[in-house]
Amino acid sequence: MPELPEVETVRKGLISLVKGKTIAKVDVYWPRIIEFPEIEIFQQQLIGETIETVDRRGKYLIFHFTHYEMVSHLRMEGKYEYFDQPRPLDKHSHVRFIFTDGTELIYHDVRKFGRMALLKKGMAKEYKGLLQLGPEPIDEDFDLLNFKQQLKKSSTMIKPLLLNQKIVAGLGNIYVDEVLWLAKIHPEQPADTLSAQTVRRLRVAIIEVIAKAKEAGGTTIRTYLNALGEAGHFQQELHVYGQTGIPCSRCGTPIIKIKVAQRGTHLCPHCQKLKKV
DNA sequence: AATACTACCTGCGTGC
DNA sequence: TGCACGCAGGTAGTAT
C-alpha cells in the first residue's frame, strides 16, 4: 500500500498499539518475507524482546527492540493488523507476532512482496536499502543545491528518477504524479533539462505534497478493517492520480493517463508540457 | 557507473 | 462461464 505518508501513518498506529509490548512467539507462514537471518533464528531472537519504539526512514519502518532492530518494508500491499485476541488467520497472513499479554500483530500481504530483516541493535542504519536512501522530503533535510546538482547529472526522465529513492526518499507512483502536476512538469522531461527555477519549484512541491498527505494520514485506496494506517483521506485531495478524464482543477483540460517507465502515469496535458531544449 | 528491463506474487476487471 | 491479458501505492537483481 504505501508511500511515505502511509508508512508514517502505520508507524503512528504501531506506536499507539504495540509500543511497550513484549513478544512471546513469532510465527512465519511465508519464509521469503524474512530476508535474514534464517527463519528459526529470527523467531528465536525475537522471543522476550520488547518494542521500545518504531521509527521510519523513507518507506521503511524500523522497529526498535530491546537487543535488536527490525527493518520492515511493506512494498506494494503489506499491512500490519492488530488484534486484541487470537483469531483465525486468513490466507494472506504471513507473519504473526504474539505478545505476552495475548494480543497480536499480524503482517498481511496479498502479493508477498514485503520484506523484514532483523539486525543487532544499532545496526539497522547499515541495512542496504537504508544506506542508499536520499534525504527525507522535508525542508531541513532536502537541500536545494544538492538536489539541483543531482538532477543536472542525469538525462533520465524526471518521474523514474524521483521514484528511485536515491535523490529524495519516500515518493511513489501516487505522489510523484501529484508533485509533477503541482510543479507543472511533464513526467518524461529529462532531469538535466529542468531550469534552476523549475527545480526550485519541484523541491517545494515535493515537500508540500508529502507534508499535506502526512497530515491527511495518507491516501486510502482500499479499505481494510483493523489495518493500521488505512484511515487516510488524502484521496480527496488528489489532482491527477486516478483522475483520468476528469477536468484539471487548474485549467479544466481532462487529465490523461500514459505509461512512463512501465508505470501508469497521470498528468494534465495542458499544464504539463514536454519542453524541447 | 548509469540506465532499462524483469522477476517477485495474487486478485480483479475487461474483452473475446 | 471461461480464459487470457493487463494492471495494481515497490524494489532488487541482472543485463547492457
TrEMBL record:
Functional description taken from the UniProt entry: Involved in base excision repair of DNA damaged by oxidation or by mutagenic agents. Acts as DNA glycosylase that recognizes and removes damaged bases. Has a preference for oxidized purines, such as 7,8-dihydro-8-oxoguanine (8-oxoG). Has AP (apurinic/apyrimidinic) lyase activity and introduces nicks in the DNA strand. Cleaves the DNA backbone by beta-delta elimination to generate a single-strand break at the site of the removed base with both 3'- and 5'-phosphates.
Residue ranges of domain FPG-type in the record: 239-273
UniProt-listed SUPFAM superfamilies: Glucocorticoid receptor-like (DNA-binding domain), N-terminal domain of MutM-like DNA repair proteins, S13-like H2TH domain
Protein name stated in the entry: Formamidopyrimidine-DNA glycosylase
CDD domains hit by this protein: EcFpg-like_N
Lineage: Bacteria, Bacillati, Bacillota, Bacilli, Lactobacillales
Family: Belongs to the FPG family.
Single GO term (MF): oxidized purine nucleobase lesion DNA N-glycosylase activity
Cofactor(s) the protein needs: Zn(2+)
Residues covered by the Formamidopyrimidine-DNA glycosylase catalytic domain: 2-114
